Amino acid sequence: MKIILIIFGCIVSYTSFAQQEIKIEDAIYHVGDSVKICSKVYGGKYLPDVKGQPTFLNFGGNYPNAPLTIAIWNDIRNEFEEAPEEFYKGVQVCIVGKIVLYKGKPEIILRNKNQILSAVKNEEVIKRK
């Protein structure tokens, strides 16, 4: 039993360490890294007529100059109680994930809604349902 607890502790420590917190403007320098970034969502767009029905959130700035895009495919979008492009607009959030490049710009693809760790709207922490 002690060995299991030690292994679990090592895994938790490694996972916490692996996701370093970075500034939004440094996202381009961390392609391939798992990171934590906190910034404001400036807006977003849902594309229901495109394959995979993606939602894109402009993180840290307005489109097309946002330093990071958050991509949410329809299967993950369905996990949200409200449309993410509307719910998170103007909200300060922290997100974790691996940065990838899409057409030369940094992006994090959400694999589940729990990658959004916290959100603050009008100085109140938003609690998930």
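^ that was protein a. below is b, sequence first then the tokens
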Amino acid sequence: MARIILKQLLIFPKIQLKYTAIYACVTLAPILVLMACHSYFIHQLTRVDLSIEEMSLIRQNSIELNIFIFVLTSIFVVLISILVTHRFLGPFIAIKRGLDSYLIDRKNPNIKIRKTDEAHSLVAQINEFFEALETK
């Protein structure tokens, strides 16, 4: 099921995955810095009078928490960035299909996109262009 959903969302896989990687790097870099600071502060606990077992337990829990937060954030960032790029690239697929349809049967394709997609003004201008061609 996840494969079907990804296949529907990845309309331009090369472009979407490229921008997903860029977005993930920019978003996850501060999280890695915060995790490093957290590890540093845990390391500083050696100055506190704790037993070796307590320190070991604190370090282990800290590592597990950092890994959990990083994995969860990574999954969230990747999914959100794929959804965002889908919203931007969806209208271009609709425009391409409309142009292909026009080239085949020379009829006004009347391109339609979802209300949540971007580029409504561009699609409206293209539809006006096809209407003007049809009236001439």
